[in-house]
């Protein structure tokens, strides 16, 4: 095999470097995607609009009627910007990250609301409690709440489940990116053609 002594274009250099460099095609796609200024052609803008429909469908599936779909979409987009998914599987894992995080945030809000409700109830039914400090009021409210309900146990269980879902999706995403990519030439090497 002989090599031409001519200057290679950037595209040729990158193609050559890809076969010599362990950097994956997905990494290169992510890097190039970060340079993007958005769709320019009509077709590109239409595809981009379809993406927002996909986000909207996911938001309608996950976000409750009293929650903000816009906040969920911002969370999803921030994770997409951070991880730059390059394949359908990576996109699904990033969506799983967003959904798990959203549900975890919901459980925190539910816990806060339940404790706040019980705190107001306890202080209104026990007038002496109103003279106590905030920590004592909260402690008594939690004691009263947990003695009559397992609601906080259920919320804690859900929080743990969503945390595991997030961690599992993140580990899978990172392991996909660290896995060696298959040789596109089928093992024949660069100069086989």
Describe this structure in words.
The longest helix is centred in the middle third of the chain and has 38 residues, at 88-125. The chain is an all-alpha fold. 72% of the residues lie in helices and 0% in strands. α5 (88-125) runs antiparallel to α7 (151-178). The radius of gyration is 26 Å and the shape is elongated. It has seven helices and no strands. The chain has a domain at 53-178. Residues 1-19 and 48-53 have low confidence and may be disordered. The chain has helices at residues 10-20, 25-34, 42-62, 69-83, 88-125, 134-148, 151-178. It starts with 9 loop residues before the first helix and ends in a 15-residue tail after the last helix.
Q: What integer is the average pLDDT?
A: 77
Helix/strand/pairing category? mainly alpha
Radius of gyration over alpha carbons? Answer: 26 Å
Number of helices: 7
Order of SSEs: HHHHHHH
User: Low-confidence parts, pLDDT < 50 over ≥5 residues?
Assistant: 1-19, 48-53
Major sheet: none
Strand content: under 5%
| Gap between N and C termini | 10 Å
> What is the 3D shape?
elongated
Percentage of helical residues?
A: over 70%
Number of strands: 0
SSE layout:
Elements: H1 10-20, H2 25-34, H3 42-62, H4 69-83, H5 88-125, H6 134-148, H7 151-178
Helix pairs in contact: 3-4, 4-5, 5-6, 5-7
Please supply descriptive tags for the structure shown above:
193 residues; mainly alpha; 7 helices
Give a brief description.
The chain has 193 residues and is mostly helical. It is 72% helix and 0% strand. It has a domain of 126 residues.
